């Protein structure tokens, strides 16, 4: 990995870190969700500084170029993030449905349309 | 013996028909009537109230399955013993209400479905819908060994055991059709059908329309059936 690439990668991982911290600080992102993104930034950071690890990892998964390893893991990461959000959305829809039903039932009760 | 009965009518934008549906139901039953207005943009709720029904209004549209579940929750909380559901579009003839209640209350079954296909009646369905129903029928027979001719019918009557179960979080509100029958069968509950006449939907609206929608619907129902089958019996 050239110095040029290293500088770029470190810059990206730091940028992710700063953006996440700022979002959490401004209460735009709940701390609960931030760990996944911070982890992603951290992994990039580690792999850049510890290039041997990336090479070993590449050999381990049978890829040819270290960049492929980075791409594969990025895609796996994105898939898991999307899945994580899908699970959250499913749960939120259920909660929203239950809440709306509860409100409807209470409202009807308040308006005296019940016994 | 005075049984506490409830009739629920899920309705979405049915201001034209809802009053006549309620009047029709009244002719055949003195049960309490609740209209679940699923976030209609028209005057469905007002019309239903003027016709003398109680109204539960959803804050926004959530779909047919959620509307009937709200009805089940209401019935459960208010100690009803049997519940009948009938569509708000006037498609179901209310003349069968006493028979449907009788089947459940005489302990002949836990759930009874009003079927438009049991007797040779003139009900016409589109090619796609009829193929869909046939496929559902076949799947249900394969899995449960029972023949339910009209698994998508929304004209149903059930006892407290059934609607209590439907108030739980596992209720498949996205597609409360074939998989409900399979789930009830696995729980050991008894189902039967009663032949009924149904009018074609007066405004030509249907729950599932168009090849794309039907295919998507199918995919979802089959996936849901598959997941249901993969679940342990105890968690159903």
Explain what this protein looks like in three dimensions.
The complex is a heterodimer of chains A (115) and B (236). Chain A is mainly α. Chain A folds into 2 domains: 49 residues; 51 residues. Chain A contains 4 helices and no strands. Chain B has a 7-stranded mixed β-sheet with strand order 3-2-1-4-6-5-7, sandwiched between helices. Chain B has a single domain, classed as Spore Coat Polysaccharide Biosynthesis Protein SpsA, Chain A. Chain B has 8 helices and 7 strands; from the N terminus they run βαβαβαβαβαβααβα. At the A-B interface, α4 of A face β3 and α3 of B.
Helix content of chain B: 40-55%
Oligomer: heterodimer
Biggest interface goes to: A-B, 13 and 19 residues
What is the total domain count of chain A?
Answer: 2
According to CATH, the homologous superfamily of chain B is Spore Coat Polysaccharide Biosynthesis Protein SpsA, Chain A
Strand percentage of chain A: under 5%
The low-confidence parts of chain A are none
Number of strands of chain A: 0
Largest sheet of chain A: none
CATH class of chain B: Alpha Beta
The CATH architecture term of chain B is Alpha-Beta Complex
Average pLDDT of chain B, rounded to a whole number, is 86
Query: Total number of β-strand segments of chain B?
Result: 7
Element-level helix/strand string of chain B: EHEHEHEHEHEHHEH
Q: How many helices of chain B in DSSP terms?
A: 8
The percentage of residues in β strands of chain B lies in 5-15%
Terminal Cα separation of chain A, in Å?
76 Å
- Major sheet of chain B: size, sense and barrel closure? 7 strands, mixed
Please give the radius of gyration of chain A in angstroms: 22 Å
Instruction: Give the uncertain stretches of chain B in residue-range form.
Output: none
